[in-house]
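Many introductory courses stop at the sequence. We go one step further.
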Amino acid sequence: SALGARGEAVRLQLQGEELRLQEESVRLHQINIYLSDRISLHRRLPERWNPLCKEKKYDYDNLPRTSVIIAFYNEAWSTLLRTVYSVLETSPDILLEEVILVDDYSDREHLKERLASELSGLPKVRLIRANKREGLVRARLLGASAARGDVLTFLDCHCECHEGWLEPLLQRIHEEESAVVCPVIDVIDWNTFEYLGNSGEPQIGGFDWRLVFTWHTVPERERLRMRSPVDVIRSPTMAGGLFAVSKKYFEYLGSYDTGMEVWGGENLEFSFRIWQCGGTLETHPCSHVGHVFPKQAPYSRNKALANSVRAAEVWMDEFKELYYHRNPRARLEPFGDVTERKQLRAKLQCKDFKWFLETVYPELHVPEDRPGFFGMLQNKGLKDYCFDYNPPDENQIVGHQVILYLCHGMGQNQ
C-alpha cells in the first residue's frame, strides 16, 4: 500500500545523498519534508473518534457555512497542500463556503507562481497575499476580514482533518453563538508522519504563572457537568492554532489584539477574553484534526514575551504580579499601547480575573507571594552565589537539595 496510508508510520532506510537531503529538509522546516513529499497529498486517516460520534445526526440545511482560514509563511509544499486537500475532501460541500490561504509574505519560490496555479484549479480556494510580513495574528485577520462564511475556522498550515471534523464545530456554534469551539488536536509525528490520534477523553488547555500554555486531564467537576462522553468539554485556554468561532461574535469580541507580533501569547489573551467577556471556550470530542508538531519552533518566539505582557496588563488585574515575579524580564519588556484593549474590556463589561480563576480554572494553584518573602537569597560571603533549586525533572519537583549557584537575576528557581 502507499507510503503513510491510513496514518501509518514511515521509516525510510536512507543513506548517502538521500539521507543528506532528508536531514536538510528537517533543518529547514523542523519537519521531515523529504518524507512528506513522498506521501500522498490525499491520504486517508484511521478512525480516531469515539464510536458514539458516528451516531450523531446533523441538520445540514440549517448549519452555518464556514470559511476555513489558513495562514502560512514559507511552508513546505506537501504539508501545505495536504492541509488544503484534506479540508476540501473531509468537509461537506454545503457547509464549506471557502478556504482562504493567507501568504504572510513568504519568499520561497514554490509558494509564488506554482502555488497560485495549483490553487486556481481548486473550487472554493482563495489565495490572499500580505504585502509585508505581518505575523500570524495579523495574517489571520487579513483572512477573517475577507471571509464570507458565517463561521471562521482557523487551521494551521500543516494539518490533516479527520472525517466528520467540521459538523460538530458548526453544530455547536449554531446552538450557542458565543461558544468558541476547538477540535481535538491529534499529533502527527514530524519524523514518521504517523497519525497518533486517540479516541479516549481529550485533554483541556490551562496555563502556568509564567503564562506558558499547558495540557491537563478533564477535571472531575467538568465530567459531572457533561451529559455524555461526546458532549463539549469546557476548557480554560486553547492551544491557539485550531478553532472555530462565529464571525459576528469574533468581531464583537474585538477579534485579535493587532498589537501582537508574530505568534505566541495570543492564544492565552484570546482565551481570557472569551471567558471574561461572556463566551465559552470548548473542545468537541467528535471533531479531530491532526497537526504536525514541528521538532522545534521554526522561527524565534522573541515577540511572544511582549504578547504575554499585553495579555497580563489587559486581563489579569492584580494577578499579573504573580506572572512578573516568575518572569522578571517581562517587567522591562516594551509592550506597546494597550489603551484600546482596556477600553474594549470596559465596553464589553468583562468580568475580572479573580472570577476567571474561581469559576473557570479553580484547579490552578494561586501562590501566596507574600511581600518581603519573595526574591533571591544572596550569600553575604560568596557574593556571586544564590540559593538555587533545580529539580531534575518536572514530575518530581519536591524533595531535592537546595544548592548554591551563580546568581543570574532571572528569578525562576532562585
